[in-house]
Design a protein that fits this description.
Blueprint (H helix, E strand, L loop, with lengths): L2 H27 L4 E2 L3 E3 L7 E8 L8 E7 L7 E5 L24 E3 L6 E8 L5 E11 L5 E8 L9 E6 L2 E5 L18 E4 L19 E4 L15 E6 L2 H7 L2 E3 L2 E4 L3
Parallel strand pairs: 2-13, 10-14
Antiparallel strand pairs: 1-3, 3-9, 4-8, 4-11, 5-14, 6-9, 7-8, 10-13, 11-12, 15-16
């Protein structure tokens, strides 16, 4: 092989290697259940919303996904954490509530789709506001990806707060087998029955193993029209998480008032 051909061969080999690594890294990045659009600027528009979808990239081991649960925090009793270093360290301000950082709660509208599941039911807060859904009646097989489309309503950040951003932490479950609570362990990332994408350490059987699991949704502050108070310095990030009471209320799947998962 002459020198010119050798150079071409090396360039081709490097190109193929780079392409393989790019695909591999892309697959690794998409290995978690996430929202297809995971951030939005704050807005006070009463009719504004962001269209996104719950992206389900894999099954539970070899077991197909047969259902999904998704809901955002109910601001009436949500847990609040704050951080100044992107949540490498964080604290829970005593007495703080979600509406200390948000002007209004986030609500969900489900975009009707039978592409994966043919049955969808809404999850509502105690006031009747729609904060999520469950879907079933279909199958996501291995090596396929599902996207469950929704919109999330516009949210504004409290002008008096020091939040540069507010991170909502939805609770998500990809259900692969219908079992009782004995078949559920959120801390087991290899559980063949259900795959949880929830906050850790809340105190429920649905808690995920770590903070790399939740599919967060971030509202960023409009610093031009809603500047930080002078006393805030560089500001902080606030994270809003469903409480244990909400998770235990909204995670179980019920049909006509009867719980069907986890099986009582």
């Amino acid at each position: 092989m002459d020198i010119s051909n050798l150079k071409k061969h090396k360039k081709l080999t490097l190109g193929i290697t780079a392409a393989v690594l790019l695909v591999f890294c892309g697959q690794q990045a998409m290995a978690h259940t996430r929202l297809t659009v995971s951030s939005t600027p704050e807005s006070s528009s009463a009719h504004g919303s962001t269209q996104t979808a719950v992206n389900v990239p894999h099954v539970c081991g070899d077991n197909p996904v047969i259902g999904n649960v998704f809901f955002v925090p109910d601001t009436t009793d949500a847990l609040v954490q704050t951080s100044t270093d992107n949540f490498e360290n964080f604290e829970s301000p005593e007495g703080a509530g979600a509406l200390d950082y948000l002007v209004n709660p986030a609500f969900v509208r489900v975009i009707r789709s039978n592409d994966v599941f043919d049955t969808q039911e809404l999850i509502k807060d105690p006031l009747g506001n729609i904060i999520g859904f469950w879907a079933a009646g279909g199958t996501l097989l291995p090596n396929f990806v599902a996207q469950l489309p929704i919109t999330i309503s516009s949210v504004a950040i409290q002008p008096t707060s020091c939040a540069n951003e507010v991170v909502l932490v939805p609770a998500i479950a990809n259900i692969c087998n219908v079992t009782g609570v004995d078949g559920i362990d959120g801390s087991d990332s290899d559980n063949p029955n259900v795959d949880f994408w929830t906050a850790p350490g809340v105190g429920t059987i649905y808690d995920a193993p770590g903070w790399n699991y939740p599919a967060t949704y971030t509202i960023t502050r409009d610093l031009e029209n809603n500047p930080l108070p002078e006393s805030c310095g560089d500001g902080l990030s606030a994270r809003i998480i469903p409480s244990a009471a909400q998770i235990n209320r909204d995670m179980p799947v019920k049909i006509n008032g009867e719980q069907v998962w986890p099986v009582p």
